[in-house]
Amino acid sequence: MKKVYFLSDAHLGSLATANPRQQERLLVSFLDHIRPEAQAIYLLGDMFDFWNEYRYVVPKGYTRFLGKLSELADSGIEVHYFTGNHDIWTYGYLEEECGVTLHRQPLQTEILGHSFYLAHGDGLGDPDFKYHVLSKIFHNRLCQLLLNAMHPWWGMQLGLRWARHSRLKRDNGKEPPYMGEDKEYLVGYSKQMMALHPEIEYFVYGHRHIELDLQLSSSARMLILGDWLWQFTYAVFDGNSITLTSYEEHDAEEPRQET
Q: H or E segment at 73?
């Protein structure tokens, strides 16, 4: 039976990760592991810690991951890539060279006969005014043109150092743990969407870097996928049930955060 897989938040290339090459190899090993059973793979954003495509230049590195995405797509497996808040700046390379289907907005879709709502999750129901201002700046076409006017080395350093600074401001570099239904803005957002679209059975998000499997109602369930920085978690759906689990079939050293 073919299955559908969901994962997010690898943040490849992060300057806050001690061994980014090993992390990438682990991710590629996982993609190889699921390949025989995978009908589709949904990457729900922030697979890169910073990704910006210039007209004739793409970021250095990630060749194993990008090559694996191309191989999977060429073999007939659907590969869906959602932009997150770290990898907004893609302008065709992932689609044209790697064969992925790119999504810039949340997606309501049918998967194996069931209704799903998929999104990276940033900004959805989030009341943080500062975040929404930054998001508008990052999505502004003029600001994107100014970024691409920089030499690629400077542009990548700016993006990666910004991302590293943002991560290391948090306690131990990690997101706060689950705060409860009344405080998690993605839970509130999902309940609002559920009221408007009662046909949705599964809400699946990345972004928060926590593992969450929450029954919203008798017919609706919500998952947050964790990450591929420390947790190496993913969800798998076989048409009957969805499971949130971790990839443990490896003996490689896990990436460590700098101190």
A: helix 63-74
What does the pLDDT look like over 182-219, one tens digit per residue?
A: 889 999 999 999 999 999 999 999 999 999 999 999 99
pTM of the predicted model as reported, rounded to 2 decimal places: 0.87
Judge contact between 41 and 99, C-beta under 8 A.
no
State the number of CA atoms in the 13 A half-sphere of 138 facing the CB. Answer: 19
The Cα 227–Cα 54 span in angstroms is 27
Q: Confidence band (pLDDT; 50, 70, 90) for 253?
A: very low
Q: Are 25 and 257 in contact (CB under 8 A)?
A: no
* 3 token code pair: 């299955």
Residue 81: C-alpha distances to residues 45, 230, 231 (Å): 7, 21, 20
What does the block give as tokens for 8? Answer: 């997010």
Determine the Cα–Cα distance for residues 26 and 10; give it in Å rounded to an integer: 10
